[in-house]
Design brief:
This is Pimeloyl-ACP methyl ester carboxylesterase. The chain is an alpha/beta fold. It has 15 helices and 8 strands. An 8-stranded mixed β-sheet has the order 1-2-4-3-5-6-7-8, with helices on both faces. The longest helix is centred in the middle third of the chain and has 19 residues.
Amino acid sequence: MNKVSKEKSVPGNLINVNGHKVHIYATGRGTPTVILVSGASTPSPYTDYYPVYKEISKIARTIVYERPGYGWSEIANTPRTTEQITKELHLLLEKIKENGPYIFVAHSYGALEVIKFAQEYSNEVAGIVLIDGVNPKCLLQRNDFITWTNIAQYFGKILRLTNIIKLLDFINPYIKMCESLPDKLKEINKVMIYNNLCSKNMSEEVKLMIKSSKSVIKGGNIGDIPLLILTSQAFNDEIKKWKETQRELKEWSRNSKQIIVGDPQDSSKIRQHYMHWYKPKVLNDIILEFIRQIQQKQI
């Protein structure tokens, strides 16, 4: 397959932000607009969030946003701190003339970005859903996690640059997890892994995790903005600090709720962390109800 980064094959639109092009894919109708923000090092947010946007878009306009270095978005030369990324997301939404306030759905490390957005632009946020979202306090307490993530980025980059990654499809957990994608998206997902795995911007985000975490903590809580915290069962059961900091995520808003999602009998942390693939119907039902409550001003 030819490289899918060519503009003619882009499913959405490429928007120029601070000298680099950012890819967004919009679908559906209805307010508030839902913005889907991926976790760190997700090669293709467009394919990763497919199980979510195909359902959410039935009741609300839904936008998949790909950070620089992800999906079809170009590499950015600006610092990859959460603060900078958030400013660029806000500029992007202004450029495409989207009308807030928005509901943000963020996976894993994307939590820092949407919390920072709510701190800086609170009037433009109607609600936040965190899918196993990282608490910045957890990152400050887990130097071992940062170290191993940096090591993984280094080896991932080698696998990509040497094309060895193409020989490892049969053991790649991300490819295996996304086997239920439509064939076209399945192929796009593979090529995006080959093209983007541990890209320059992804690695920079990891290196700046501590700085980004401190910035979010300094920003303080987000007031009464509805905050729904979805925590994976496996992480919650097996990692003590994760369990504690997930519970503490409720302190970021005076209007927050936590729900544990998963199967106590399944110990796979990676699979459960990607709960939008592991339990798509359960997850979507929860998110759809959250959106309806905001639409009907019940929360």
